[in-house]
User: Fold this.
Amino acid sequence: MQGFGSMLKDYLEYYKISQTDFAERLGISTKHMNEILNGKTNISEELMLGISLITDIDVNLIFYVETKKRIYEYLNERFNSEKEINKYLNTFCINEMAKKKWITLKDSSSYTQNAMDLLDYLGIASFDNVSNYLNHKILYKKKEDADINKIYLWIKRCDKKIEKINIPEYLSSNLTLLLKELEIIRNKKFNEEELIRLFNKYGIYLVIEDALNGTKIRGCTMVKNNNPCIYITRYFKEKASFYFTLYHEIGHIKSDYNKLKNKIIMKNAKYSINANLVYKNGYSGKNVNIAVLDTGVFKHKQLDGCIKHFMDFVGGKETCYDDNGHGTHVCGILSAADIGMAPGAGLYVFKVLDYLGMGQTSDSIRALKYIKENCVRLNIKILNFSVGYLPCSDTAERIKILKLIDELWDMGVVVVAAAGNYGPAPFSVTVPGISRKIITVGSFDDIRSGKGPTDCCIVKPEILAPGHDIISLGTRDGTYVRKTGTSMATPIVSGAIALLLEKNPNMRPEAVKLALYNTCDRAGDSHKGSWGIINVDKLVGIL
Assistant:
């Protein structure tokens, strides 16, 4: 598959623009320009924006084409042949899905393209962690011989049917009103559309959809967009069987809605990194303080008692706020009461990014200097740096950040930084993740995750964690949002380290790093260049 480079080459030829001239306008070398045009290197987001600014090409088109190319490359790396891809696709019943028109195969003769279409349908970035993703995203009761893949494919089909449906907010009082009207409808001739309209009226999604052959599931209940959802197959043979299933799922809404909405939303990520026993043994990150450099933080009820200190290096405000949401999401992963990795940890939040999620390196430098001068007094044990600056950033500023980061490490602060989302090409790890000393985190379920080696030939990232579709706090009480990237994987690792330091408060950063190396689950071929995936129970010494 050709990337944007070939399209750009055609553009330059059409408008008679030389490669040298275009490279100068972008501020890159002619050699780098040539590599882009010939598809020998990936285009950074910074360059995408630059190309868009000096041409009439939409930046979204550039990003779309480049992303598709990278996914294509990943699939060819993941599988040895088209035959192997096809064998894997058959486990997802891709031909049956196509017949049902659940999925449109753009090129039925290309199994690599079919795999890309399937990834798009599933809404995931990689097949490498598909088993974990499937097993922990679904809440239902199934028969022993049920096919998990088929169930998940059916659920995704139902998900897609509600994407463009707007329904009112669900209130618990709605359920009584719904049941009264349902009694009337139940005695009428069966009408799917009438039923769906009734449930939607009271803030509940209802989908009735044929399942794949052998799915062996009648229905399930979950929460989407803070509204309860009931999905039912046409597995039933008579009206009474359908209503039996329907009332069963309504019962789940009545008893489990709040639990589904709030308490289990980070469970998926915790399962995938074996954080099962650590909480049962009483660990919560108590007495461990974490510094967070980000877009700020909203005082969500889930963070009550966690936020110890706030400083705004962007707008100079004294009270907590987050005009972007990224920082609140990160803080939620770290310490939110119901979902956080370390709900007992204290947070020292430093706003260094604006409402667009952009920032000046000078603001990060000022924040790092403050932490350096006060880390002993504030008892800061961990620095979570989900902010990444491109390796090509201003050299002087880059050196200052790396120097401060390394000094904090030497002073006993465990620095955990994101690898960035400019991968998977080599040299794509962002600053300060390129530091030789600190712990750099990649995402094992997002192929955009930055990879080394760095420009100093250092293997990065050291450790991997889930980063795709992570649900955490929004910037209003009671709200939760999904975000993807190494920015989400990083606080998962920082939170795990907080649990470790609660047990071993005098542990030095070097010892923490060694413990991660000795206890992680070794990664497969697709994640070469990292040690492996964090295993929290092993890290803390529960196993």
